[in-house]
Specification:
By secondary structure, the protein is α/β, with parallel strands linked by helices. It folds into two domains: 164 residues, HAD superfamily/HAD-like (Rossmann fold), CATH 3.40.50.1000; 105 residues, 3-Layer(aba) Sandwich (Rossmann fold), CATH 3.40.50.1000. Helix content is 31%, strand content 18%. It has nine helices and 13 strands. The strands form three sheets. Strands 1-13-12-11-2-3-4 form a seven-stranded parallel β-sheet. The model has no long low-confidence stretch (mean pLDDT 94). Keywords: Hydrolase. GO terms for molecular function: hydrolase activity. It comes from Bosea massiliensis.
Length: 289
């Protein structure tokens, strides 16, 4: 929980109130820019406004797919290229972890839509009993499955001491108003039974380091941490990751925690923040300018 000396979360009516403080925005995608079904028009407009005022925008997502796939998805939602400078995904970081294990037999747990993650890599897919490590990109059917669905499979991996690379540390995500489980819930279950999980995305430092390297290259200079903000809708990944990386965490309330926060008063929201592992510096219901 936040310490008693941690400043309270400050409410915002729009990002414009603090825009002058930042040169770089590391913005979450799912839950902030879109909900898996449609883009949020005001959020897109806010990102465009940031860039028009000289703030670089790097979209940082725990999606277990390469950035090019996310780019296509955003195009499909009608998100203009003017809304972002670059995209860095958990999938990009994950590919590096897989490449470091080139040639080793791997069991992939996840849906077919995540197969682009391993395209072109020397990562032979094998049956569970033949694997030397596990790659988890998600649940086979996130509409019906839970981590418990794979309890027997995970127990076998743990007994053999296999590492699990988790391509998406999110526990859950909102999809069109529904909350569905992600790979992080499987990795957490694996750790709870004694297995070792290696995480590619937020809140862990490698994805932030990759995003900052991209941004420094775009701007041609190093960006001080105090001039960087991280926007997201999840305490465990977005806000914890921003805090650990030394940047300003800004929380969108209408994401995965909407049930607790959207109908609450600000006094109730402050109480809720005080009970969490991390507290954002700022919060607003939706990302708006």
């Amino acid at each position: 929980m936040p310490s008693s000396t941690t400043p309270p979360t400050l409410p915002l009516s729009g990002f414009s109130e603090i825009a002058g403080r930042f040169d770089l925005c590391l913005c979450d995608v799912w839950g902030v820019v879109h909900n898996g079904v449609a883009a949020f028009g005001e959020a897109v407009s806010a990102l465009v406004a940031m860039r028009e005022r000289g703030i670089s925008v790097v979209l940082v997502t725990n999606a277990p797919r390469p950035a090019a796939v996310i780019e296509q998805q955003l195009d499909g939602f009608g998100v203009p290229r003017a809304a972002w400078d670059a995209i860095v995904t958990s999938g990009d970081v994950c590919r590096g972890l897989i490449a470091a294990r080139a040639g080793r037999p791997m069991f992939r747990l996840g849906p077919e839509r995540d197969k682009p993650l391993v395209a072109g890599l020397d990562a032979p897919e094998v049956a569970p009993e033949e694997a030397s490590y596990v790659l988890c990109t998600g649940l086979l059917d996130d509409e019906t499955d839970t981590a418990e669905t794979y309890a027997g499979l995970l127990a076998g991996f743990a007994a053999r001491g296999l590492d699990m690379i988790c391509a998406n540390p999110d526990l859950v995500v909102e999809r069109g108003g529904r909350i569905v489980p992600c790979a992080g819930s499987v990795a957490l279950a694996y750790e709870e039974m004694g297995g070792r999980a290696i995480y590619a995305g937020k809140p862990h430092a490698p994805i932030y380091e990759a995003a900052l390297a991209v941004a420094d290259g775009l701007r041609g200079a190093s960006i001080p941490r105090e001039r960087i903000c991280g926007i997201g809708d999840a305490i465990r990944t977005d806000i914890a990751g921003a805090q650990a990386f030394g940047i300003t965490g800004i929380m969108v309330l209408a994401g995965i925690h909407a049930q607790d926060l959207m109908e609450a008063s600000w006094d109730e929201r402050h109480g809720w923040f005080g009970r969490q592992s991390h507290r954002p510096a700022y919060a607003l219901p939706h990302l708006v300018w």
